[in-house]
Automatic annotation (TrEMBL), chains A, B:
GO molecular function, one term: pyridoxal phosphate binding
Lineage: Eukaryota, Viridiplantae, Streptophyta, Embryophyta, Tracheophyta
Residues bearing PTM N6-(pyridoxal phosphate)lysine: 229
Organism expressing this protein natively: Spirodela intermedia
Protein family according to the UniProt entry: Belongs to the group II decarboxylase family.
Protein name: Uncharacterized protein
GO annotation terms (biological process): carboxylic acid metabolic process
């Protein structure tokens, strides 16, 4: 499938076109302008169409930034150390910046961990985002993959066993606040408790991958995490927050900029903070709270509808990611832009995903599903290993167990 | 100074403001909308003002993307392997993608070098961009700094000596196509010749940091490099190009995306390729050629005006970066957004920098300079070490040598 958001691969109209040289007389006739306008119009129609059926990836497509279009003509590039940004944080001991994407946040957080503990071992559950393992390769760190529970959460008994195996080296731990596929939230308190009990006191560093739920979490349960995807923004970006005391480990003075280089990317898209500022101001705390509650309700609604239709489905607590049996029709998967892994697929219920959209989706899934079974009896596949027996709709688990 | 492009630190109006919570009745009265509109209007005026006096950093601010504003409302996020993009390249053996900025291109190119030669030593001239040395630290690579000539080019005799000292390990070389401060172009052919003569045949990897000049170079001399800054684009971005045969060394399959992860950042701003496509199509080869020629001419004009005013100044061949004595007035430096290093400052002559703007700049510099000398005789500082004796305007070098 290979696409997230509106991935350009699906839009043959624009990006695969060669750059063509303007003819000398085109400037006079305006033919070139007309040609480009027609390509853009086609691309726009395609984006409208794709946006209609977007379910599989955690992007809030429900945004409106009309007032910001006046700034589009400006080059806004943020360089050097983003100290002034820290004023958005409440306490003096934090430092943060707006990244180009979630991967950059993970690269930055894990790099700080390595600079604080140069011989530290990176621990991450096997359902962590792929950028966590990429960071380990890039930074030449020892990396230990920890097992997960059926829910997708880190398996803390395996974590403890792995800690004891590597007791001589400090621990750098990636904790997921909403895993990519199942939306599982690792138990941060338990992770810290195990570290302390296993003799790692003052020898551990934790990076929280806030992913999607970092921003939703404060509205369902008190945790200090912050991420962006929920906000809905036309450019990818993220928020990285760390302790001020650690940031010097990755900073270097750059005379040319008369500033310090403390981020991963030198240049940062200056439009992204504008979008975030605009959205945060328009919606406010109460606005976000309402949206998060609606998402969780809608996710429960979707899970209920799927189960009622005899389809295995799981929804983690605090999560708006509904995991269910993988549709066997690639065309259907592409149309709804579902992300699949093994026997499962998921829908991430974002603010722009309405109950009506979910109904259309389930109805269509039920319809195509009966086609796969050639009109005969539908025998749901067993996905107990992926979602747990209680969430599986196969004949064995539906009635027995 | 700490700013490049329109760095937000200078705009107190927007980013340093706290996010304020909307009052319950604001939604009804529209007060919130009015407040935000006034903040944005102030920010916009500030950007207009900053753009007027932008000289020090290599951004082409002369762009017009009116037709693209219709796409601003869409979330366009490119993930996975950007294979389809490769169609913009002429030959099958190349692979490339559009990055978030120049730093990402350097991080990517050097990472490939390390994966091809895991025990390779990174060689980079001391005037290379800071992200090159950051990459070495991040990737835990041995890194050898090579001396530079007065022009800013890599000192090839020092390079050869360093190669011989480290002969047992493969060489990964960063070659600059326009250094950050002096706009110097390293001699790629000579670098390759030295590597082969020093016993590194088939044991070296070269990353070219195209920086600004990568894109200008094809229009002044035949070299196959491509970069972005010259194009003029409202978001930072870059182009990374590498050999297809090498890209597998840094790629991993990601089932969730049903694609391969081959870039540094997972998400890539999908608007950036649109801006590039639009600009390339509108201007075409001839359009860029004209712009590059105008920039080089204007840079020569600026250097001539500075020298005529008794100010030491240097302009490298093939370069539009004019280096000159550092103004002693911080206010002046800030106003014109000049980048300074040690005793020198520079102006990067981009397409949006006109002869008129340069005249205003030189006139003002001459005026404030006479203020520094308190109306007495101006004694130009010696900057021969930075720009060479022939470009220095100090009393010793101006007349004697």
């Amino acid at each position: 499938m290979g696409e997230e958001g509106n991935r350009a691969r699906e839009e043959p109209a624009l990006v695969q076109l060669r750059i063509t040289e303007p003819e000398a007389d085109e400037e006079l006739t305006g033919d070139r302008e007309a040609y480009m306008a027609s390509v853009l119009a086609k691309y726009r129609r395609n984006l409208v169409e794709r946006t209609k059926h977007h379910l599989g990836y955690p992007y809030n497509l429900d945004f409106e930034y009309g007032a910001l279009s006046q700034l589009q003509p400006f080059s806004i590039n943020n360089l050097g150390t983003p100290s002034s940004r820290a004023t958005m944080l409440e306490k003096n001991e934090y430092w943060g910046y707006i990244t180009n994407c979630g991967t950059e946040g993970n690269l930055h957080g894990i790099l700080i961990g390595r600079e604080v503990f140069p011989d530290g071992v990176l621990y991450a559950s096997r359902e962590s985002h792929y950028s966590v393992f990429k960071a380990a390769r890039m930074y030449r760190m020892d990396c230990v993959k920890v097992k997960t529970l059926v829910s997708g959460e880190i398996d803390c008994s395996d974590f403890q066993a792995k800690l004891i195996e590597n007791q001589e080296k400090p621990a750098i731990v990636n904790v997921n606040i909403g895993t990519t596929v199942k939306g599982a939230v690792d138990d941060l308190d338990l992770v810290i408790k195990l570290l302390e009990e296993s003799g790692f006191e003052n020898r551990f560093y934790i990076h929280c991958d806030g992913a999607l739920f970092g921003l939703m979490m404060p509205f369902v349960k008190r945790r200090e995490r912050l991420r962006h995807k929920f906000i809905g923004c036309p450019v990818p970006c993220g928020v990285q927050i760390t302790r001020k005391t650690h940031i010097n480990a990755v900073s270097r003075d750059v005379e040319y900029l008369a500033s310090r280089d403390a981020t991963i990317m030198g240049s940062r898209n200056g439009h992204a903070p504008l979008f975030l500022w605009y959205a945060l101001n328009r919606k406010g705390y109460r606005g976000f709270q309402k949206e998060v509650q609606r998402c969780l309700l809608n996710a429960h609604f979707l899970k209920g509808r799927l189960r009622a239709a005899g389809i295995g489905a799981m929804l983690n607590e605090l999560s708006s990611t509904v995991v269910f049996e993988r549709p066997q029709d690639d065309e259907f998967v592409r149309k709804w832009q579902l992300a699949c892994e093994g026997n499962i697929a998921h829908v991430v219920v974002m603010p722009n995903v309405t109950v009506e959209k979910l109904c259309v989706f389930v109805d269509e899934l039920v319809r195509v599903r009966s086609v796969w079974s050639s009109g005969g009896e539908i025998s749901p596949p067993c996905i107990a290993a992926e979602v747990g027996r209680e969430n599986c709709a196969c004949l064995l688990h539906l009635h027995g167990q």
